[in-house]
Amino acid sequence: MEPTTDDSAETRHAGPWPFVTIRYFHRDGRALVWRSRDHRKGLFRHRRALENVPAPFWQTALYNWLTGLIFVLGSALFMAGSAMALYPAMVAHLPSWATNVTFFAGSIPFTTAAYMQLFQAANAEAARAEGRDSPALFGWEPMNAGWLSAATQFIGTIFFNFNTFDAIHTPSDWVMQDIVIWGPGMAGSVLFLVSGYLAYIEVGHAHLSLPRRDVSWWIGAINLLGCIAFMIASTIAYTPEGKEAAWIMTVSNANLWFGALCFFIGAALSMREARHAAS
């Protein structure tokens, strides 16, 4: 991946093995820094190295802002569904399926925004420079942490589509519940965790990094925390044969709510971050 012009010289690069997430250049006597997340999102720190290059629509402030807004909507619906499950007395007047429909409704914006991120990652500036006539729908850049994060997240959201849809009319048999509800939820949570970690190391440029005054780092860290909470929620939501302790689903839904809150905050911060993209 080569994002620079011909008169730029790379001095060094770094990142969490096996990925390169930050590069240092000299151009016309100036020191330039290329960051993976900035590159695919069209954020201002990378644009300084690519002056006079018009941004495609998927690297504009509006595109980034809308992606964040759709994630906010999905997160809010998941928070609402979790709250309804935690406090069923509040929604006793609603149909029994209302809670699960709320979860399913939340899964749709998640998938939509996740695909928008995948499309953006597949069509970063380097991909356009390769001479493609039309944008790539999915791309294939497994050695790019940003693309891999977006791809695993998108697939994870599809599993949550099945997980939440199948829960609207929950099967009576515990085995079928685990197959059509718990199984997809677990697969989605594992993929979310992988995606969250990849996004975290992309902005931290290391497998473990300390907090910094960088909104991108906080987006990655908060989203990773949400992925961990989702993983806990899905793991303990397994339906056993026979009766299970009441506290298990309470803890699961509480973690689901907290994870959705983290995603909500991360998405809101990404809307703020979008100000630094092309207008």
What do you see in this structure?
This protein is mainly alpha-helical and 279 residues long. The chain has one domain. 61% of the residues lie in helices and 7% in strands. The chain contains 9 helices and 3 strands, in the order βββααααααααα. The protein has helices at 36-41, 44-47, 61-86, 98-122, 125-129, 145-166, 174-204, 215-236, 246-273; strands spanning 8-14, 22-27, 30-35. Strands 1-2-3 form a 3-stranded antiparallel beta sheet. A hairpin with a 2-residue loop joins strand 2 and strand 3 (30-35). Helix 6 (145-166) runs antiparallel to helix 7, helix 7 runs antiparallel to helix 8 and helix 8 (215-236) packs antiparallel against helix 9 (246-273). The longest helix is centred in the last third of the chain and has 31 residues, at 174-204. The protein is elongated and about 70 Å long.
Layout of secondary structure:
Elements lengths: L7 E7 L7 E6 L2 E6 H6 L2 H4 L13 H26 L11 H25 L2 H5 L15 H22 L7 H31 L10 H22 L9 H28 L6
Helix pairs in contact: 3-4, 3-9, 4-6, 6-7, 7-8, 8-9
In short:
The protein is mostly helical and 279 residues long. 61% of the residues lie in helices and 7% in strands. It has a three-stranded antiparallel β-sheet with strand order 1-2-3.
